[in-house]
Design a protein that fits this description.
The protein is α/β, with parallel strands linked by helices and 297 residues long. The protein has three domains: 83 residues, Orthogonal Bundle (Arc Repressor Mutant, subunit A), CATH 1.10.10.10; 98 residues, Periplasmic binding protein-like II (D-Maltodextrin-Binding Protein, domain 2); 105 residues, 3-Layer(aba) Sandwich (D-Maltodextrin-Binding Protein, domain 2). Helices cover 47% and strands 20% of the residues. Strands 3, 4, 5, 6, 9, 10 and 11 form a seven-stranded mixed sheet that branches. The protein has a two-stranded antiparallel sheet with strand order 1-2. Strand 7, helix 9 and strand 8 form a beta-alpha-beta unit. The model has no long low-confidence stretch (mean pLDDT 90).
């Protein structure tokens, strides 16, 4: 039990970034938490925190230990809470933010039975920068972000690797040769469809496959990937989209994959939450449901 208490004290200090605040969260004295950290460091023969003028900074060993034990300790706490209070301990609302297309295609179908646990979902759509601000402000519990978040107040893990594919209608497929360098030249003359003015998915694809950036301006910009699917299928131009979003249309032949690179570009999606020991059991429950579901996506 002492070993478990040492790990729990360590994880709390790691997440809140302060021995004083960790002691308050654990209802322990500061010397007790300091002693448990020292005992854990002695047992591991590793320094876990470096003292600096404004507090403490985790070492590489601390980052690795937190990564290995965090989910397991959270699961133990969730189980204990559920056994103590019954299933109603999960009842309430979880607020989730992310991109509309990915939430609709992957996240929400994986959480469709949460009502059986008396958990309600409220979804907010938007750009990752705005959603992360809402997460920090407490307006959201979980965020699916299309960009990596570097913030000491937040934790994240890779949730999904979406493969990016260059697609267009059959009429455009006939004009694009299979040789990569020749295809890059031909594509300069074909209308590009994009999610945003800076061509985010197109730029990622071009950089990895062609070793350059698109030189053309998009003929259509619409902040809705599903709209891009429809326009591309109708012959309006070519675009880069996540494979999960166009898989059925590729099988049906309504869209064509225009190139087949040996190493397809991928885009990482991250699940983000606050580094906070007071994270409610239902938020932990939903987070772990998503993490398990992502293994099947």
């Amino acid at each position: 039990m002492d070993n478990l208490n040492q790990l729990r004290s360590f994880l709390t200090v790691y997440r809140v970034g302060s021995i004083t605040r960790a002691a308050e969260a654990l209802h322990l004295t500061q010397p007790a938490v300091t002693r448990q950290l020292r005992q854990l460091e002695e047992r591991m023969s590793r320094q876990l925190f470096t003292r600096v003028p404004r507090g403490i900074v985790p070492t590489a060993a601390a980052h690795e230990l937190a990564r290995r034990i965090g989910t397991h300790l959270d699961a133990l706490d969730l189980l204990a809470e559920s056994l103590k209070l019954g299933s109603q301990s999960l009842a309430g609302t979880v607020y989730v933010g992310g991109p509309a297309e990915f939430l609709g295609a992957k996240v929400l179908p994986s959480l469709s039975d949460l009502h059986e646990e008396n958990i309600l979902l409220r979804i907010r759509l938007g750009a990752p920068e705005v959603l992360v601000q809402d997460l920090q402000a407490g307006a959201l519990d979980l965020v699916v972000s299309t960009v990596r978040i570097s913030n000491p107040e937040l934790e994240s893990r890779t949730l999904y690797l979406e493969e990016l594919v260059l697609v267009g209608s059959a009429s455009w497929a006939e004009k694009i040769p299979r040789k990569t360098l020749v295809a890059a030249e031909v594509l300069k003359q074909i209308p590009l469809l994009s999610y945003a003015e800076d061509l985010p998915l197109l730029r990622r694809y071009w950089r990895q496959v062609f070793g350059s950036l698109p030189s053309a301006t998009a003929s259509l910009v619409v902040p809705d990937l599903r709209a891009l699917v429809e326009v591309a299928a109708s012959g309006g131009g070519v675009t880069v989209l996540p494979r999960y979003l166009v898989e059925d249309l590729l099988v049906q032949g309504d869209l064509m994959e225009l190139l087949h690179p040996l190493k397809p570009p991928v885009n990482q999606l991250h699940l983000v939450w606050k580094r906070d020991t007071s994270l409610h059991p239902r938020v932990i429950y939903v987070k772990e449901r998503l993490e398990r579901a992502s293994e099947r996506w």
